[in-house]
Amino acid sequence: MNGVKKQNLPQKVCVSCGRTFTWRKKWQKVWAEVKYCSDKCKNHRGHSNS
């Protein structure tokens, strides 16, 4: 993703909270498997934040 502007990076929707999150370099090799925007959401999967 070198040379790509931040606004053009891939995005996904978190399956836990429903928020949109953007590609991060640390997810470069596992982007296809990323489902949660943070560790907090990963630990609270299936729970509603409302």
How many domains, in number, for the residues?
1
Describe the oligomeric state of these chains in a short phrase. single chain
* Helix fraction by DSSP (H/I, runs of at least 4): 10-25%
Tell me the series of helices and strands, N- to C-terminal: EEH
Low-pLDDT parts are none
Shape: elongated
Radius of gyration: 12 Å
Structural class: alpha+beta
Q: How many strands, what sense, and barrel or not for the largest sheet?
A: 2 strands, antiparallel
Strand arrangement across the biggest beta sheet: 1-2
Mean pLDDT: 88
Kindly list the characteristics that best describe this protein.
12% strand; DUF2256 domain-containing protein; UCP037205; alpha+beta; 10% helix; 50 residues
Summarize the structure.
The protein is an alpha+beta fold and 50 residues long. The chain has 1 helix and 2 strands.
What do these coordinates show?
This protein is an alpha+beta fold and 50 residues long. It has one domain. 10% of the residues lie in helices and 12% in strands. A two-stranded antiparallel sheet has the order 1-2. 2% of the residues are buried.
Which helices and strands, and how do they pair?
Blueprint: E1 11-13, E2 20-22, H1 39-43
Antiparallel strand pairs: 1-2
